Amino acid sequence: MKTEEEKERILELFKRYKSLRTVSRLCNSSPNTVDKYVSKKFKVERKNIVNDFKNDKKLIGVYVGLWMGDGTQYRDKDYTVKICTNKEDRILNEFMQEIVFKLFNKKSSLIFIKDTKQAYIKFRSKFIYKFIDKFASYEKEHKTSTVSLKYPIEQYSIDLLKGVFLGLMLTDGYLKKRLYFNVISEKLAKDMQNILRRLNLKSNIYIHKRKKYGWKDLYMVRLNVKDSKKAERELTTTLETMNFQISFKELKYGKNGPAEI
Question: What is the 3-state secondary structure (H, E, C) of the chain?
């Protein structure tokens, strides 16, 4: 139950912004809760997520990269989407939630898994659930080993690919002196190599044979030191052009930086 002061703030914010989702974010309340109080005094134009969706290529690319790296989704009572993460990565978790909100105007929850460092960002949306199929190809039962971009690299804009590059590096990438990108999807490794090529960066792919241990082979995309520095500047520039005033390494690793590899 909201206090009278909280109710008044909700009404004042709605009067100013005319958006349930904006008020819900500013008040840290669900859109349904905001709607309950606002609809008593104002006529509310309810927009669904399709109307609110922003066709921003870099934002789309970042979300696609994050989902291909650490995303999953399933049907239960609703259309549920999750992005797996680490509960200690506070800045990165906030960034991922902000990407979902900026792109889809959708509020998400950060869920911690008890007695582990694991966490996940969770939200429900039929539109977002189906949205990824416009950009990614994968087998539902074997997503991690089969995921890739749906179409050849040449069919995507450079801005979208810059976003995908950032999303993939934030999930499955490593960058200190050299850039590494490690996945068990051969197709996704080749996508990364082709994205780097579009950015005028030459990479090599190495395969760690692991089948004798009962594991899938690991595909490593690697840049030399010189091109790794160029890639780091590209990643930070992408963040800056999206109005995130933070470097790539600060976002991914925090102030302590990456561990040695």
Answer: CCCHHHHHHHHHHHHHHCCHHHHHHHHCCCHHHHHHHHCCCCCCCCCCHHHHCCCCHHHHHHHHHHHHHHEEEEECCCEEEEEEEECCCHHHHHHHHHHHHHHHCCCCEEEECCCCCEEEEEEECHHHHHHHHHCEECCHHHHHHHCEECCCHHHCCHHHHHHHHHHHHHHHEEECCCEEEEECCHHHHHHHHHHHHHCCCCEEEEEECCHHHCCCCEEEEEECHHHHHHHHHHHHHHHHHCCCCCCHHHHHHCCCCCCCC
Residues 6+ apart with CB under 8 A from 3: none
Other C-beta atoms lying within 10 Å of the C-beta of residue 166: 27
Query: Treating both helix axes as pointing N-terminal to C-terminal, what angle do 20-27 and 4-17 enclose, rounded to 10 degrees?
Result: 140
pLDDT in tens, 174-207: 999 999 999 999 999 999 999 999 999 999 999 9
Question: How is residue 99 written in tokens?
Answer: 């990407």
Radius of gyration of the chain (CA): 20
Q: Exposed/middle/buried for 255, CB within 10 Å: 0-12, 13-18, 19+?
A: exposed
Closest CA to 123 of 148, 143, 97: 97
Both tokens assigned to 80:
């549920």
Q: pLDDT tens digit string along 118-147?
A: 999 999 999 999 999 999 999 989 999 999
Contact call for residues 189 and 205 (beta carbons, < 8 A): yes
Burial of 9 (0-12, 13-18, 19+ CB in 10 A): middle
The predicted structure's pLDDT at residue 229: 97
